[in-house]
Amino acid sequence: MSLIELLQMNNITVYQCIPAYRPSPTVRIIQSLLDFNCKVLLDIEDSIQDVQQPKLNDELKAQARIAFACIVNKLPNCKFNIRINAIHSKAFPLDAELLLKFSNQIESVFIPKVESSNDLEIYCEAVQHNHRLNLIIETQKGVNNIDEILSSKYKNRIDFVFFGNYDFHLDCNIFPITEQDSFNYWEIVKPIITKVEKNKLHFGNSPYANIVDTNCLNFTLKQLNAFCKRDFAVMALHKNQSIYFNSLITEHQKSIQQAVNTNRSNVTIDLFNNNKQKGRSFAMYNDRIITPQEYLLLLKRKNG
Questions:
Q1: How far apart are CA 98 and CA 241, in angstroms?
Q2: Is residue 79 pLDDT above 50, yes or no?
Q3: DSSP state, residue 21
Q4: d(CA 108, CA 119)
Q5: What local confidence, expressed as pLDDT, does residue 3 receive?
Q6: DSSP string covering 127-156, please?
Q7: 106-144 pLDDT tens trace
Q8: Distance (Å, rounded) from C-alpha 48 to C-alpha 59?
Q9: Average pLDDT of span 84-90
Q10: Within 13 A of 165's CA, how many CA atoms are on the CB side?
Q11: Angle 103-105-111 (CA atoms, 0-180°, nearest 5)?
Q12: Strand spans (E) along the chain
């Protein structure tokens, strides 16, 4: 990204998605992420299933709940985000028990396959705790009903509204999947962003499965920054993606600091006088406006 693009970038929240599986190595992964600018999202839904042997799914999800408890207990000073199972699934009541048991260590709950405001009501009645909520819209019905979903009386508890690209394509029976490096993807996403932000909420982008393709991640951030007027979130499926996002965020912060230090400290009265625009109140130097307010402040300092 160019310096100008970085300076104009919105704030980004990065969620690192990790399956709640095999507690010991998962704890090590989480510990390795503590120095990065990302939030840990433990998944007991999408990544915990066997699509070839669905009859095993109940046991897999039961094991995931046990793994989640073990991971949380091993990291008592950490806050976690958790992706639960869909509201109408038979796993949800057991997930609700888990949320209440570990409520103090849960920062937010990701609710998948949200299709109506009634889904939020069912959740909030079952889980009597004011966790922050992140909704995942990933079916055609959910996309169609987004205005109704965001009219929920629980709207003030929502942080981000995520789009789930892969499940959306599965629900619509579209193959091959339209990935984020295609402008067709953004034709799907732009109306969702508009509606989310109209409700004064924040958009969360779908994860991207090619974990080594940083070109697509870079393009995605440019698109999000162009379409989102408010801060947004991204989801990483691998540590490498979080590292990449983190490097851009760090570069963004450094660029802002360097720009402030360099551009402001080098402004002088002579620089303003020699580059003042004819008939205008400001000067232009190296693609940067030197404002009349800066000139007046410099004069005050010169004159004591």
A1: 29
A2: yes
A3: -
A4: 16
A5: 38
A6: S-S--EEEEEE-SHHHHHTHHHHTT-TTGG
A7: 999 999 999 999 999 999 999 999 999 999 999 999 999
A8: 10
A9: 97
A10: 22
A11: 65
A12: 12-19, 39-43, 80-83, 106-111, 132-137, 158-163, 202-204, 232-236, 283-285, 288-290
